[in-house]
Structure formats: C-alpha cells, structure tokens
Amino acid sequence: MGNHDIFFKKILEVEGHAEELVRSSLPPAILEQLDLSTLKEEKGSFLGEELSEYFSDLLYTCQFKGALIRIALLFEHKSHVDHDMLFKTLLYMASQWERCRKQDIEKTPIIPIVVYHGEREWQPGLLSDCFKDLPPMIKPFIPDSEYIFVDLANWKDEEIKDRLFVMVSMKFCMLIFKNIFHPEKLRENIKEYFKLAASLFEDEDGLKIIKNAIEYIFKTTDLQPEYVAETIGTVSLKGKELAMTTAERLMNEGRNEGEGIGVFKEKYQTIMRLSKLNLKPEDIAEGAGLTPEKVKEVLAAGDKGLDLLIGDNATKH
Fold first, then answer.
1. CA pair distance 218, 252, nearest whole angstrom
2. Which of 79, 126, 161, 290 could be bridged to 144 by S-S, CB 3.0 to 4.6 A?
3. What are the φ/ψ torsions at residue 243 (nearest 5 degrees)?
4. Residue 261 falls inside a structural domain
C-alpha cells in the first residue's frame, strides 16, 4: 500500500470523517433519504488481488429509507485517465454480491464513490465507451451503471474550508490531500493549513492527525523538514517538535533500510526528468542506478513510482 493510500485510509479512520466525505459527495436526492447516523464501516478490505492494483477500498453500511444499503469509498491508485473504471467498479460490486451469496448475507445495493486526486483531468465515461463502434441495438446489453466520481481538483480550497466540510480535522486533511501534487502551492499555504488546524494541537487525537499529515508531507514531497517544522512552529511549538521528531524517525527508518527516503526521491526525479528527454529505459537506468526493468515499472506507475521504489526497498529488508 502506497503513501497516498495509507493517508486516505487514515483520514477516514477519524470518527465523523467518512460521514463528511459521503455528505459532500452524494447527490441531495440520495442524501435526503439516507440516515447517515447509521453509517458503519465493515472492517477489512474486500478487494481481490486483481482489484487491489487499482483501488483502496472502505466499505460501509447505511440505512436508506429504512432498508440497508452499502456505500463503497474507493480511492483510485492511478493518476491518469482510466476508461475501464466503470468495468472495475462493476467487478468490485459483483465481488461484494458474490461474497454475500457465499456467506448467506442479504445482498444490498452498492453506491461506489471513486475518489481521485491526480494531476491530469479526467472525465469519467460509461462502460459502453470502452467498445469501439458499438451498434445501437447492442448497447442495451452493456451494463452502463454509474458511480459517484470525486475529482479533488474540482474542489477549491475555499469550498473545502467554508462549504464542503464541518469538522476542522477533515478540512485540514483534505486540503493537504488535495494539494499534495502541487508542492509550490503546498509550500505557500502550509502555514495557513496548520493555522486552520490549530485546535488539533490541544489533545492526543488531534496530534495524531497532525502527525499523520506531517509524515505524509515528508514522504511524498520535497519540502524540507526544517522549513515545515519552522512554519508549524509559528502556530504551535508542540507541532514544531512533532515535525522534527517525525523527520528524525523517518530518516532513521531510511538508514535502517539501507537508503534514506531522499535517495529514492532523487532516483525517481532522475527517471522522470530523463524520460521527458525521450531517452530509452536502458539509458535512464544508467543515470538512475537501477535496472531497465525497474525503470519501466516506475514509468508505468507514474505518480506511484516513488511509492514503488520505497516499497520495493522495504520488502528487501
């Protein structure tokens, strides 16, 4: 599981956060009939090996007009346009209904919510779009169901702070999560984000949220720990100390694994920089100190390439 997936799940582990995300994502007509006070997570992941390549999943039950339904929060791993997404959500729903059948559990409708925070614009289509030159008389046989698509790029910071969410912790986490691929914007606004979260420094639960966000920033951006710590220090001295100890812990973990996180960032940046020059993987591999096969894997993974490098190193030790 990559750093983005881990942080996504940590966001929704906080009591009330899943309800806030569901409330901000679903159409009003559905929300009016949904009793969100009954929203309850079904523990565990229900993805098969094939689907786990694409999603992180969190599955919830909820009462809808007195009947039970399920809401699946699916975090999309990839950051490029994926025209097969509807096919994958159908596979996911079918796997849930098959699980219910095998365990003799009542089958329920499932509302899939796909959360995407990549850099590239994505307009989701229908399953029938995957078929070239589909004759109109054949189209009715294609199961063109829908899913809720949440592209965080469409949410402005002001909307996150003022309209979409109520809980300060959710506003803070989603601002970090939304802007993680925009380091300059994150750098410019990080003081504002932590200032918004000032109340979280006052208790252990809040500090845990702060720590998770700091760790996420350190693992996925090039922002200098000293800068992050000093910036947080203008809001909370306790936060500055937390940032410094988190940075030190991550550096020690990197040493124990044989290489620090910064080394992986450098390799990843080298790969992406040389790929823009249209060099062959064999030539990029020489510059990055990796095998051509590994370079191909990193390029195929796109924004997940850094997570792939770090994860591979972790499994070796």
1. 13
2. 126
3. -65, -40
4. no
Cα–Cα distance for residue pair 170/180, rounded to 1 Å: 15
Tens-digit pLDDT profile for residues 97-131: 998 899 998 888 999 888 888 777 777 777 787 78
238 and 273 belong to one structural domain? no
Question: 6-42: b or e for each residue (b if 16 or more CB lie within 10 Å)?
Answer: bbbbbbbebeebbbbbbebbbeeeeeeebebeebeee
User: What are 36's two structure tokens?
Assistant: 């969100």
Q: Tokens for 63? A: 């009462």
pTM of the predicted structure, to 2 decimals: 0.75
Of 68, 43, 48, 69, nearest in space to 58 by CA: 43
User: 45 and 102, same structural domain?
Assistant: yes
Do residues 216 and 7 make contact, with C-beta atoms less than 8 angstroms apart? Answer: yes
**Does 7 share its domain with 148?**
yes
Task: Judge if 150 and 183 occupy the same domain.
Answer: no
Which domain covers residue 280, as residue numbers? 266-316
Number of domains in the chain: 3
Bridge partner residues of 151 (DSSP): 116
CB atoms within 10 A of CB 256: 9
* Alpha-carbon span 317 to 218, nearest angstrom: 21
Task: Indicate whether 79 belongs to any domain.
Answer: yes
Question: Are 48 and 92 in a shared domain?
Answer: yes
Strand 67-76 vs strand 148-151: parallel, antiparallel, or unpaired? unpaired
Q: Above pLDDT 90, what percent of the chain?
A: 38
Report pLDDT digits (tens) over 230-264: 999 999 999 999 999 998 888 777 655 544 566 77
